[in-house]
Structure formats: C-alpha cells, structure tokens
Specification:
It is a single chain. By secondary structure, this protein is an alpha/beta fold. The protein folds into three domains: about 70 residues, Orthogonal Bundle (Arc Repressor Mutant, subunit A), CATH 1.10.10.10; about 130 residues, ATPase, nucleotide binding domain (Nucleotidyltransferase, domain 5), CATH 3.30.420; about 160 residues, Nucleotidyltransferase, domain 5, CATH 3.30.420.40. It is built from 14 helices and 15 strands. A five-stranded mixed sheet has the order 6-5-4-7-10, sandwiched between helices. A five-stranded mixed sheet has the order 13-12-11-14-15, with helices on both faces. It has a three-stranded antiparallel sheet with strand order 1-3-2. β8 and β9 form a beta hairpin. α4 runs parallel beside α5, α9 crosses α11 and α11 crosses α13.
Length: about 400
C-alpha cells in the first residue's frame, strides 16, 4: 500500500500540487517551463522538484531539444510507482483495465461473467486482479485501489448492493467490505451507469459539458447525472434509478414492483416481449429486432417505433427535471443508430425546446473508463491534493 507523507508545510504543498497538476496534464517539462506555467519562482520550483525527486514522484527524462543555448533538463512523473484497477462487472461480461499514475492503460482484459454471485464473484474478481498484476510483473504494494462499476444501488456508507435484479445472489451483499478484505487494498464501488456518465465526462462526448445526463438502454436501464461537474447520487444512492419510473405500463403490478415499470418496457426483455406481442418470434434478441426493423419487417417496425416513443418521453422528462447541457444515450441497445434516430424524431414532436441528444462515443467501454477515473482521481487528490482546498485536481484527458 502506498504511504502518504504529510510533513510538508501547507504553502509548499500548494506548490507541489501545482507542479504535479501541470505534469499530469502537460507531460514532461523543464523547471523553467513549469515555473512559467505555475507562476512559481525559480527558487520555489527548485525546492519543489527536490522534494518530488526525493520521494520518487518525478524523475529526469532527458534534455530539452530544439532550443538555442544550454539545454535544460526535463522532468516527468514517475508513473510506474502507483497503479489503479478499474472493473466493469456486468450480468454477462467482466472488463478490467489497469492504468498507471498518469492514467495510461497498461493492460485491458475481458472475460465472461459465469460466477454465481456473492463470495463466488469476489473470489473470481480477486483472481483476475492477481493474474493481471502477475502478468505485468507489478508488485501488489503498488496497486493503490480498485474501482468496481456494477448494476444496482450502492449504499455509500455500508458498501452493500441493492436493487440488482440482473445479477445472481447480489442483493443486500456487502460487496465493498468483502472485496476489501479479499483484495488487501481500498475498493471503491459505483453504480455502472454512474460510472458510464463519468467515463463520457472524462474521455467521451461529454468532455466539453459541465452538466450531462447519461441514459443507458440495454439488458436493464439507468441514468447517470453529472451536474456542474459533480456526480448526483442522492440521499440513498438511488438517484437515476429510472427503472421504476411509472412510464409505459402499470406501476402497480407485481412485475413492475420487482423489475420496474419503465425497465419492463425499455429493457431488453421488455422489447423482445413487445416484438412477440406484435407477431414476431418469442425471445428474439433486440439486435435481431433492430436488424429486421432496417429490413422493414412489420412487427419490428411496431416494436422499435413504440420503444423510441417511450424513450423520447424519458429523455424529455430528464431534460425538464435537470436541464443538462446534453443527454447521452448509451448501452448496447441505446447506441444503435436506428433507435436514436427515431428517438430524436419523437423528441422533436413532444419537446417544447431543442434537446442536445448525443450517442455515446465510448460505447461498451464507457463504464470501465468511468471506473478507472474514479480510482485515478482519488489517487491524484490523495497524493497531490489538499484536504482544505475545495477544487480537486482534474484528470488528464489526453495521453
């Protein structure tokens, strides 16, 4: 585990933070370039670099080139001193990404989720973590934290998982504490759609937005909200659980109470069922229904038009309640252009004002990207931030 030293005076900590933030975003630079960018004096810059070199966080990386006169030494972040691991745990697939201190990906791995949930899932994830570190020959002490993005509501105080009908044996399971005990490092748990919103905000189509909403349409449905740069979780961690919105069906049926009224209409199972009611074959995958829609099959047309009509009402509701700069549609169903085109059409007929509706640019990697961002952001601010400084160090977006 990485040890955090706090024996540097506060004013010097502010200078250290400024230098590390610059190096995280700009890459290797000379002392003169860093002093100019951070507005620190040459003496202060020399003292800061000395502190960071002694603690191993920066290192010389060669001389400046292309300039007349004496070449200056460049410095870079020692990005191999700390790592974080992001995990996207879905109903059918597990994705992992190991990144270094700067956020550059070291390795990426995907595998089938064939666990039985509960402790069996924890053991599976722990083994995957151990395998990745061994393959990359990285000492476990350098792994600062693991972020897990998973469907369901996470109680941020207890780390327990709830409202996760698409995962086996996970409702009420103390996921965070069980994983921390097994992993031997800090484990951060986040709702998968919240993580997708963070991913798009960091490196996707929401990079230029201060506020955005991410709607995921897939096996299940969900909403992630970032308002003025802050993820909205709600008092119980259930903000964005749109599955239970009373749209598209009867909210008082046992099925709606178990799965959610809106999810029973917009989730994969609901779309497949609607297709069957329209005359199509039972249990047809949504991807096939969308392909048949393109071929103008009558049952597929009825199904996708009704799905788009209901989804447009959802988008409109989110826009009216939260007024984000943009609304991003993702998920393995939501990213299909045939569907988003029809959602835009129905929006134009029911919205009193234009709504900027975007398609996810990260696609299936949005959740994993967000999981990585959560741990990486915490690591940067723990190492180089200040607890009394309200503005957090932003993550580097381009590597």
């Amino acid at each position: 585990m990485i040890e955090i030293e706090n024996d540097v005076p506060v004013l010097r900590q502010i200078s250290v933070r400024a230098v590390m933030e610059y190096l995280l975003h700009a890459g290797p630079a000379s002392r003169a370039a860093m002093a100019k960018a951070t507005k620190l004096s040459k003496q202060t810059m020399s003292e800061v670099i000395l502190i960071l070199e002694e603690r191993g966080w920066v290192r010389p990386c060669g001389l400046e080139s292309g300039k007349v006169g004496r070449a200056a030494m460049n410095y870079e972040i020692a990005d191999d001193l700390a790592y974080v691991l992001g995990m996207d745990v879905g109903a059918t697939t597990i994705r992992l990404s190991l990144v270094n201190l700067r956020g550059a990906e070291i390795t990426h791995y995907e595998t089938e989720n064939n666990s039985q949930g509960g402790i069996d899932l924890v053991n599976r994830l722990c083994q995957l973590k151990n395998d990745i570190l061994a393959q990359q020959q990285i000492d476990e002490s350098k792994l600062h934290s693991v972020s897990v993005a998973i469907p369901g509501v996470i109680n941020q105080k207890t780390g327990a998982l709830d409202m996760a009908p698409n995962l086996k044996n996970m409702s009420g399971f103390a996921l965070r504490d069980t994983m921390q005990q097994a992993f031997g490092c800090e484990v951060l748990i986040e709702n998968d759609v919240n993580a997708a919103a963070i991913g798009e905000y960091w490196r996707g189509c929401g990079q230029d937005d201060h506020s955005l909403a991410f709607i995921s349409l897939g096996t299940g449905i969900g909403l992630g909200l970032i308002l003025e740069g802050i993820l909205l979780r709600g008092a119980m961690g259930a903000a964005g659980e749109i599955s239970y919105l009373p749209l598209g069906g009867d909210a008082y049926t046992p099925e709606s109470l178990r799965q959610g009224t809106l999810e029973s209409v917009l989730g994969a199972a609901g779309i497949s069922q609607r297709y069957h009611f329209a005359g199509g074959a039972a249990n047809t995958p949504v991807r096939d229904i969308l392909n048949r829609y393109a071929d103008k099959e009558p049952a597929a047309i009825v199904t996708i038009e009704e799905t788009a009509r209901t989804a447009a009402l959802l988008v409109l509701s989110v826009s009216l309640m939260f007024d984000p700069e943009s609304i991003i549609i993702g998920g393995n169903i939501g990213i299909r252009p045939e569907l988003t085109e029809r959602i835009r059409y129905y929006l134009s007929n029911c919205s009193p004002h234009p709504i900027l509706l975007k398609s996810s640019t990260l696609g299936s990697q949005s959740v994993l990207t967000g999981a990585v961002a959560i741990s990486l952001n915490k690591l940067h601010n723990l190492l180089f931030g200040l607890p009394d400084l309200s503005r957090k160090i932003p993550l580097p977006k381009n590597l």
